[in-house]
Structures are given as structure tokens and as C-alpha cells.
Amino acid sequence: MTICPECSAETNYNIDCAAFFSECLALEFTDSQYDEVHHLTVATYMLQHSSRLSLDGWLATRQLLREFLVENKSPLLIKKQNKSIVDNGKRKWKITSRDGQAFINRDTWAKTILDVNLNNSTAYRGTIIAWARSVLKSSESIPFVTHTGLPDHRTGNQHDFS
Predict the structure, then answer these.
(1) What would the pLDDT profile of 42-97 be if each residue is shown by its tens digit?
(2) Could you tell me the residue range of the domain that residue 38 belongs to?
């Protein structure tokens, strides 16, 4: 059995979260019906595996997930809206982690990537959306202090995703 140190996912299939994430990406890149939720797959996986992101990158990713799920914004709209915000030449903060250390308690998550059903595109999309909603809901109760030392006020929004 493998237990992920970042999200607590358990499997008896000799596959870890990173390998399962790669399988998801392979399906999304080869089948347009799976690809419809690619934006949710990546954002949700990164939120649960915080060692890949800086705190600012994690907070920005959580905001993206909120915009996708709560505000129903499309990936294309988000890309246009955030073009100047995430531009490497203009951005004053790092998206990726500098030290590779996870900073989210692995027991935070009710669902993980291993809850995703790969059997067919309909089941896949449904389980990706359920996973993303669960992660967003759980993540919004995590208090943070930003690099400025001020509380992050983006954590205050609570949404009912039932």
C-alpha cells in the first residue's frame, strides 16, 4: 500500500498520485471528451500537492479553481483575464515552490485524485468535478498569512457545493 505524504491518498495498485496524475493527463491530451476538465485536473492536483507551489502560487491556483467552479468562468476567459497578472516579466511572486516542501496538512482532503474514475469520459468528468469541488471547499477553511504578514482575506468565502 502506498500513502501519499501530501494528500493521504491510499492505493493497493502500486501507483502513486504522480503516476495517476500522469495517466489523467495522458487521457486528457489524447481524448477531447476527457480534456474538457483539464483545467480542473491540474488546479486541483496542485492544490493537494502543495510542495509544487509557492504560497502565492497556491493561493492564485485556489482563486482560479474558485473562478472555474463558482463563477463558471471558462479557461479561455481566465487566460485572457490573467494574462498580465501571471506574466513572468511583470509578476513579483513565484508560482512554483522554491524548496519543494509541502505546507498543507495531508489530512485536509476528503477526496483525492485516486477517487477519479478513468473508465469512461462521462464518469471521468463527473469525478474530476466532484474532486475539484471537494478540494475547493476544504481549502477555503485553511487560514494563511501572506508574504506581507497580513492575513489572506481570500480564505473567507464559503460556498455550498452540494
Answers:
(1) 999 999 998 888 888 888 889 899 999 999 998 888 888 776 666 566 666 677 77
(2) 2-155
Give me the half-sphere count of Cα atoms (radius 13 Å) on the Cβ side of residue 127.
16
Give me the number of domains the chain comprises. Answer: 1
Residue 161 lies inside a defined structural domain of this protein: no
Give the containing element (helix H, strand E) for 57. helix 55-69
What is the C-alpha to C-alpha distance for residues 125 and 34, in angstroms, rounded to an integer?
Answer: 7
The residue type found at 111 is K
Q: Is residue 47 part of a domain?
A: yes
Distance CA 108, CA 110 (A): 7
- What's the pTM? 0.81
Give the helix/strand (H/E) hosting 66: helix 55-69
Nearest to 46 by CA among 99, 114, 95, 107: 95
Position 76 in a domain: yes
Asked if residue 11 lies in contact with residue 1, where contact means CB atoms within 8 angstroms, the answer is yes
CA 6 – CA 81 distance, rounded (Å): 31
Cα distance between residue 61 and residue 136, in whole Å: 10
Please report whether residue 43 resides in a domain: yes
Q: DSSP assignment of 18-53, as one string?
A: HHHHHHHHHHHHH-HHHHTTHHHHHHHHHHH-GGGB
